[in-house]
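Recall the central idea of this unit: under ordinary conditions, the amino acid sequence of a chain determines the structure it adopts. In this exercise we apply that idea directly, starting from the sequence alone.
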Amino acid sequence: MASKAAVAAVDFTRIYSTLGLGKDTIAALQAFRKRHGDAQRIQSQYASQPTTIDLAHYRSVLKNKAIVDEAEKLLKDFKVVTYDVNAHVKAIETFEAKAVEKAQATAAQIDVELKELQATLANIEEARPFEDLTVEDVGNAHPRILEAVETMVKKGKWTVPGYKEKFGDLSLM
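Accordingly, the structure predicted from this sequence is:
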């Protein structure tokens, strides 16, 4: 009973979204939950059915008593078949191992992204206002800009391609 309450208390949609699980992992978990729910429904359905057979009733109803005797003999001789579930347990364990491995990889990836985001946030908080930046600061931050400007100056190009199309011609003459 406690496990049913625990399963009911788990918000799987929140888990899927907050852990950032991959589509394959989410699909596998949902399929597993569906199979589990189906198995529970079938088990409860069979558990509610009566398990005793009233052979005396069948003897009184049927004319052919030999059929009832044969059915009674078959019921007495019936032995429950046991299945080796080790293969299924191994499959579940490998699924669990893959899920744990993917979860750990996802957690590691999230940790790396979180560190990068924290570094970016710290950089943004420590950055100077745009008005206080100099050309040297921009050039040091992005050396490709300096290289592009140097090449344009060497080639004698004093206009930026696409500037007039985007901002228009601001010259008064």
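The longest helix spans residues 86-126.
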